[in-house]
Amino acid sequence: MKTFSIQDYYSIGEKEKEKTIRISRRIIIIKNSYRHFKQESYNDSELNLLGGMNMFYKKQPVQNQESYKNMLKTLGGLSRLFSEAESPYLFYRAHENIFAKFFDVSNNGRSDDSVDAYNIEKGIGIGLKTWVGGNDQKVAEFGRLRPQYEHLTGIELIKQIAEYRNLRIRTTMNSHGLDTMLYHIIKRIPNAMQIYEAAFDEIDVQNIVIDNKRGNDNNTYFSDGKHTYHFSSSKNTLYMIFDHMELVDEFEVEIYDDPYEILSTLLESTVIEVNTTPKKEQLCLRLYSTDKNGNKFVQEKSGINQWNANGRKRNLDEIYIPYPAKDRNRGRFFPERDTAFELRLPNGETMSAKVCQDNGKAIMSNPNSFLGKWLLRDVLNLTPGKVVTYDMLREFNIDCVVFTKFDDFTYSIDFGVLGTYEEFYELEDSEKLMENKNDID
């Protein structure tokens, strides 16, 4: 039998190409159906052939893979609700929810850090992406850091952006206790979806080479030997060209001409149960203060710098989360002062915490060094004795924490990216306004 090569593909006509694509898709569907029937997963040898042991999708049970694809097909079939394009429509929030529903991961999409899903036990974080068209895609925005790098150009600018990118990746991995990360991608093409996976690496700063043959005064292209990136100065945005993706699955999507009729028929023939489970209570607290002009700063001798306070000698990990009157007056959230509760960390560990100090103005761990050990050392990776500033929080892209209440004595804590507090309580964000002004300028 003659092997059909990529050169053969480009030498045939358009009709033959379409036929070849249809046949290839049917082969994939048949192979996946056979695996589903046999309840087989890919073995280690197959995984190595498919791109290495850091892949995620092919390690999942075949039944879960099929359920995931079927839900994507269902949503894609309703694309005419949103678009007339031949490529199926997929809202990124829907993708995050579907991925978490059918695979053994926690949904982290709302946190806006470097990963959209993660599995603590397996130490893996996953960035979810979906797009139509070219593979030059946004991977990070740095608008709030613009005052710190706008004076830089050339290789100095690119190395600084790369350091910001790497710091965010490390902070996310430290926060959730991750060992590795990867991208899981849904690329939408006419009447089909393709599933790819790709490496999610730090940028190798020492090997950065600027490509002077591409770009312009606004866009700088560069490579670190592993990936090609470009940074848009006007948009304060870093893009990566996903040219080293591994195709792990592909399936056809039938787009319904009249999705409204489909939905009407479904509603008429189905009894839909509405989920009445109340939403878990949440409270967002800032790690910073503001002066009378609204400028943000971190207290030098209190809060997350409590270890630096005057008076008695303190443990260098001693900190507390400020709980000011403005937030205490939002309603009862924590137990009474000095009443211990369990606090679950993003990495799956727990510690004992309580409301303490005068008027209950602080959230501390017991012992009071545990919280600082986790936040300052494990997550932010700061050396003992280093005072935290708001400029540092900008670089980490976090400036607040979000508590979630499970019951009166069980809570979780997670980080909030810059601007989360203002968004949480629908407040004006002076730094966001300045960021928007810079974008316009």
Description:
This protein has 13 helices and 20 strands. It is of the alpha+beta class and 441 residues long. The strands form four sheets. It has a seven-stranded mixed beta sheet. It has a six-stranded mixed beta sheet with strand order 1-2-3-5-6-11. Strands 4-10-9-8-7 form a five-stranded antiparallel beta sheet, with helices on one face. Helix 4 runs antiparallel to helix 5. The chain is globular, with a radius of gyration of 25 Å. It starts with 5 loop residues before the first helix and ends with a helix.
Stretches with pLDDT under 50, minimum 5 residues: 1-10, 21-53, 437-441
Q: What is the makeup of the main sheet? A: 7 strands, mixed
Q: Strand percentage, roughly?
A: 15-25%
Helical run tally = 13
Q: What is the 3D form?
A: globular
Number of strands: 20
Oligomer: single chain
Summarize model confidence as the mean pLDDT: 87
Q: Evaluate the radius of gyration.
A: 25 Å
| Largest beta sheet: strand ordering | 12-19-20-16-17-18-15
Distance between the termini: 62 Å
Structural class: alpha+beta
Q: Give the fraction of residues assigned to helices.
A: 25-40%
Task: Set out the fold topology.
Blueprint: H1 6-11, H2 14-38, H3 44-49, H4 62-77, H5 92-102, E1 106-107, E2 117-119, E3 124-132, E4 136-141, H6 146-149, H7 154-176, E5 180-189, E6 192-199, E7 209-210, E8 219-223, E9 228-232, E10 237-241, E11 246-252, H8 259-269, E12 282-286, E13 289-290, E14 296-297, E15 321-322, H9 325-328, E16 341-344, E17 350-356, E18 362-366, H10 370-379, H11 390-396, E19 400-407, E20 410-416, H12 420-424, H13 430-440
Parallel strand pairs: 3-5, 16-20
Antiparallel strand pairs: 1-2, 2-3, 4-10, 5-6, 6-11, 7-8, 8-9, 9-10, 12-19, 13-14, 15-18, 16-17, 17-18, 19-20
Helix pairs in contact: 4-5
